[in-house]
């Protein structure tokens, strides 16, 4: 059986346990994507927290539901970004208990799940408030809305640029990126509402835009939630071709068959796999093990694989029904 670093463990060893070497890392051997983008997350957190305070005060003074709605969304962003930062710290800490055999990397996934819950809460609240305001005609200070909308859009564009690259590599950073993207859309909505109110003289556009912001937040929450559940449900990672992987392992010299192939994501950028390799009679099990490990690392970017090599007449695994 291979260790995370590809080493061999002799069968029938006398030790009660053994070390699996360093905790799993990204496919290229670097720290997790979230850890690499921690500085950018911190900068975005600071900008978002400052903008939240500005929008909340301005929304209350101007009477704009759209502005208050966007401020409420930004409040969840502050919490979500803070949770993302904490998760990157937790994920990188070594485990001293000996019970977390995969380390603490799932903290990043749980952080993304918290972001989903916050987004759903804000989305529902904003939509309900918008519906409750239908038929009312409050006075809205469009000048304040325009100024704050421009400031918010500029700040959010900076945040998007900081997190864009990391959003393609880390589920944790993706959650933060989607939060900031929602803020940017909210700022555009605030500007649109202010312009429409000035143009038509009707404050109904404030309610319409607020409802649109709420729906936009809910749609993004569903998208991110599906990704989180996919990881927690141990689905095959997106882009993983299991048929090709099975074929590549079967084609390894000395392998007669492959069964019990399982592939899942520990966290973003850290895919792991297990498989049983049935060796041909006379095959060198060490060579089979090394070649299979190399195939998974080179062709499928799976650096952490636990592989069991079995003789052709080994049938015990067939008794397992799941």
From TrEMBL:
PANTHER family: CATION EFFLUX PROTEIN/ ZINC TRANSPORTER, RE54080P-RELATED. SUPFAM superfamilies: Cation efflux protein cytoplasmic domain-like, Cation efflux protein transmembrane domain-like. Residues 1-34 are annotated as: Disordered. One of its GO terms (molecular function) is zinc ion transmembrane transporter activity. The keyword Zinc does not apply. Belongs to the cation diffusion facilitator (CDF) transporter (TC 2.A.4) family. SLC30A subfamily. It comes from Nakamurella endophytica. This is Cation transporter. The lineage of its organism: Bacteria, Bacillati, Actinomycetota, Actinomycetes, Nakamurellales.
